[in-house]
Amino acid sequence: MNRQDVEARAEELFRGGLHCAESVFQAVLESQGLAGAERAPRVASAFGGGVGRSKQELCGALAGGLMALGQLRGRSTPQEPWDEVATTAEALRQRFGTEYGGTRCLAVLEKLGPQERMDKCIRLAGRTAGMIDDALATDADTAQAQACGCK
After folding, report:
1. What is the pLDDT of residues 43-95, one digit of tens each?
2. Tens digit of each residue's pLDDT (9 = 90 or more) over 24-46
3. What are the two backbone dihedrals, phi and then psi, of residue 104, each rounded to the nearest 5 degrees?
4. Helix, strand or coil, per DSSP, at residue 57
5. What angle do CA 69, 64, 101 make, to 5 degrees?
6. Terminal CA-to-CA distance of the chain, rounded, Å?
7. What's the DSSP call for residue 55?
């Protein structure tokens, strides 16, 4: 899947009944070919609407994207370093915050303005899935360059 495909898939999942966190998490995992991606909504369910619909915490779309990043690039044991995934997550947080006026759900909703049938949140979920896809591709390119001694 390319960026456009993962964005379209996140939007399709959102329109189909999943919420922001669920749709981004599942779309990104599917784009990377991860087996079991259809179970992603269960993990992400509590994060929709700024955590439990409170709108007071991290935007659900960003939360779903960061969960996907962790699932795909995170560590499995305490002995593994997590510097790369932490650096990527922080860069994503900054990029998202700059683009959407913050990372807290309520701030993002205020920046998006009035919407009908969650249309702006659906598009936001798609764009967020695209951001994560870009970050994963960049991360993979950097890892390949380091492995061959190019960087």
Report:
1. 999 999 999 999 999 999 999 999 999 999 999 999 999 999 999 999 999 99
2. 999 999 999 999 999 999 999 99
3. -80, 135
4. coil
5. 100
6. 27
7. S
